[in-house]
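Format notes (please read before filing issues)

Several people have asked whether sequences and structure tokens are stored in separate files. They are not. Every record keeps both together, in the order shown below: the sequence lines, then the token lines. Line labels are part of the format and must not be stripped during preprocessing.
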Amino acid sequence: MSLRAALVLLLPEPRVEELRARFDPEGTAAGIPLHITLLFPFGARASGVEEFFARWSPLRFSLARVEAFPGAVWLAPEPDEELHERILELYARYPEYPPYDGEFPDPIPHATVGKGDVAEAVRVAAEPLLPVEFEVDAATLIEEVAPDRWHAGKRFPFEGGT
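Then the structure lines:
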């Protein structure tokens, strides 16, 4: 049984994962993989998820630059238009799970790599790595299995076009 869950795009890239481990050690220690959030919170037992994602085609983008929100440093995907559209499509399909509990109804696609006042340090460390290209062909359900302990669960392959 999960405490909380999220639908995410996993971004397996060792150099960026290492960057994140350095600047977000708490998230890394909690087992939260490097990712772009599609929908959080999400009901781990929601219906129709496989069919929903099966219609999607793979997403191609690069993590291209360092940006910051108050308290968080992130890498921006480019291009982000299709990713943003698909995130909004997911929210429309599951309106019972407003993004970030309704705090950010039109969230910005991002991959968090740092917490706190680390923007300049992340910028210096990330510059030589960027851009990093990705082709993501599935969404993944990540679940909090104990307080601050997350586990990557079921994958939902993208099998078609949108």
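For reference, the curators noted about this record: The radius of gyration is 15 Å. Residues 81-93 form the longest helix (13 residues).
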